[in-house]
Amino acid sequence: MISLIFNQIFKLSATTSIINSHIQEMEKLVSSWCKNKPLPESYIFPPETRPGNLVVPTCNSIPVIDLSKAEGQNRTHTVQQILKAGQEYGFFQVVNHGVPESLMNESMDVFKEFFEMPWEDKAMLYSEDPKNSCRLSTSSVNYAREKIHHWRDNLRHPCHPLQSCIKHWPQKPTRYREVVATYTIEAKKLGLRILELVSEGLGLESRYFGDKLSESEILSINHYPPCPDPSLTLGVAKHCDPNLLTLLHQGDVGGLQVFNNGEWIGVEPLHDAFVVNIGNQLQIISNNKLKSVEHRVVTNSRVARTSAGLFIGPSEDSIIEPEKSLVDDSPFYRAFEFKDFLLHYFANLEDNEVVMGRFKLQA
Ligand code: OGA
Ligand code: NI
Hints:
This protein has 363 residues and is an alpha+beta fold. Helices cover 32% and strands 18% of the residues. The strands form 3 sheets. It has an 8-stranded mixed β-sheet. Keywords: Dioxygenase, Iron, Metal-binding, Oxidoreductase.
């Protein structure tokens, strides 16, 4: 009996000390300290990379593609629109895409609710170890090592295979698992549909990307609290996505900017659209026929912004190389294992030239 009580006390105090250490670490979350505080020095980007007061056109130049047209006579036209957008911008938005608007809204509500919960409900998920399979963190991948912090909190977890992943997902809000499981299944289906259209456009068989190349699915939810000085900092610094294809639900608040023709352009928030962008692997496999393009996130001083990206990518042991039928003269990249790409990517975040340079073949 005594040992039982002792065990209980011991267990309790171990849990308490885990929670205590989490509380200390969690104080780094932007949302936990930012209210009514000026922007700390550690969040100020150097003049070359800070957004400044530049008014960026939220122009209509990122193409908006109506996917309902892909099922009828206009399929070829839709395929061409996707390919052209992928070549010119690396980005496009899709509407009438088949993911119910109610599901998109409900997911966005759950994501927002998650970040609004009191810290006790989130403490167990906070982790500074990038290997953790579901983790709440802040800033970029490595808070301790980075020179400048980013104005965002982030929750990310894998979604496939669902059965083994879901038990690591947040238990609160209570409907999180149910809603997000349905959401990720539907969004993945949409991703595969877009990849089929891409394959058709490239002249590949329609299931080309359907297996190992799109096996991994990571959901990354960003929360950007209102920021005291958006001209000096960034929510996410410029980067390309390392995966195959990203589907982003950006809700109603803008902030995403894409680098195009030497300038930053804003991606207009369209309520029920997905923003789609080409990842590094799709650029490599297509031998530069599609481009993964640098993008960043600026903050705003009025409202919090929540966005959710579904990163569809290869399994880590996939061998990636330019598809032979897409090589006109010579391939631009050598073959490599995807896990090597990821290692190199995370060591050189923010420098896409360096990341891609390692896998390039000399011309
Ligand atoms: C990302 C990203 C964009 C956004 O997480 O890779 O580019 O609008 N996010 O949050
Ligand atoms: Ni990105």
